[in-house]
Design brief:
The chain is built from ten helices and 15 strands. By secondary structure, the chain is α/β, with parallel strands linked by helices. The longest helix is centred in the first third of the chain and has 15 residues, at 3-17. The termini are far apart.
């Protein structure tokens, strides 16, 4: 493959996925990681991508852009379904769980319809689903609706989660960086998510790999605050990082859970 053609393909992949690791680019383009790093260095010099530790992100990314639910729903659906299926065994009959707003947690809610569990959420889509079809109890947080993402936010929502206790919270991610942690585009949503984290005995993050090597404007938590990370896959380098940080993880093929 000509170098120019390869770099065009690289740019197309980065812009489409918004972020991508060096290892993944090496696999997709069938070239060595050394070649990928050289290409990334040149592309960054030309202002076409932005290099980050372990990969690259698109220059089209906006740290403060809240992605509408209609757009989120179309992204990485199969990966989100796999992640939800992997999370399901960590929920048992009679449990009280918090489901953060998001399309991955919605996939988990679909699997919980026939279970006798209490689900607490600020997600309007999840609430509508479980109110209509759920076997267990549903508790909605209340709050002000974010119309484009169908999420409840604000001081009412924060106060609600500060007044409850749950077994496990399953949180979604707008972005995840190995040093900065999990972050979100909205400060108001972060306040809600922080209250969720403190309301549960166990914190489980659900995120597909497209969210890696990204940083949004407001930090939700560090990776040290997680009890488990569930994702569709991790590269060998990322597995080493999880182990170094003593972060338990679960993917379709690899697990650190004994």
């Amino acid at each position: 493959m000509l170098a120019e053609v390869r770099r065009d393909q690289l740019l197309e992949i980065v812009n489409e996925r918004q972020n991508v690791s060096t290892e993944e680019l090496s696999r997709l383009l069938h070239v060595s990681r050394v070649t990928v790093r050289s290409d990334l260095a040149l592309m960054e010099k030309l202002g076409k991508i932005r290099k980050v530790h372990g990969g690259a992100i698109s220059t089209h990314m906006q740290l403060d852009r809240e992605i509408p639910i209609t757009e989120k729903t179309k992204r990485n659906t199969e990966a989100k379904q796999f992640i939800a299926a992997m999370a399901l065994p960590y929920i048992h009959e009679g449990d009280v769980v918090i489901l953060d707003s998001g399309t991955t947690t919605y996939q988990l809610a679909l699997l919980l319809k026939n279970m006798d569990v209490t689900v607490i959420t600020n997600d309007i889509n999840i609430g509508h689903l479980l109110a209509a079809e759920g076997k267990g109890n549903l508790i909605m947080s209340g709050g002000v609706a974010m119309r484009n993402v169908l999420t409840l936010k604000g001081s009412v929502t924060v106060n609600f989660f500060q007044s409850i206790q749950a077994d496990t919270v399953f949180i979604g991610c707008d972005a995840i960086d190995w040093e900065f942690g999990i972050s979100n585009h909205s400060f108001e949503e972060v306040a809600v998510k922080r209250a969720m984290l403190h309301a549960a005995k166990k914190v489980v993050a659900l995120t597909d790999h497209s969210k890696f090597y990204q940083m949004a404007m407001a930090r939700v938590c560090t990776l040290h605050e997680l009890d488990l990370l569930i994702t569709d896959y991790l590269t060998e380098e990322e597995i080493k990082k999880c182990k170094k940080k003593k972060l338990p993880f679960l993917t379709k093929e690899v697990s650190s859970i004994e």
